[in-house]
Amino acid sequence: MSDRGTDYPTVVQRYFAAWNATTAEERAKAVAAAFTEDVTYTDPLADVRGQDALAALIGDVRQRFPGFEFRVTGTPDGHHGLVRFTWDLVAPADGSAPVAGFDVATLDDAGRIRTVSGFLDRVPPQA
């Protein structure tokens, strides 16, 4: 993939539109816009393939952290069809961020995300 014209901040903005969608319908539309049909998403707690599985995973996270918002931290950067970015999961009540991570994604020629490799830098204790 050529990097000419790749707008990495927009790619990441679409990524977080999917993760912040509050309804199943919004989530499905946002996932379809941001990710390829055969997307793979892997982090220490999840390993899914396909848009439906990713949308379900996002829905599960949204249920565990109702009202929370994923926010990019820093400036996304990329090269050769790769983009990396850091993020926080922010609590609406007090602005705290109990979860934080770092993701690396590969893109297709249209700038849609094909794979995500996620790393969790901060997670709350499991109950």
Automatic annotation (TrEMBL):
Read off the Pfam families from this record: SnoaL_2
Record domain SnoaL-like: where: 12-114
InterPro entries registered for this protein in UniProt: NTF2-like_dom_sf (IPR032710), SnoaL-like (IPR037401)
Q: Which SUPFAM superfamilies match?
A: NTF2-like
List the protein's name.
Nuclear transport factor 2 family protein
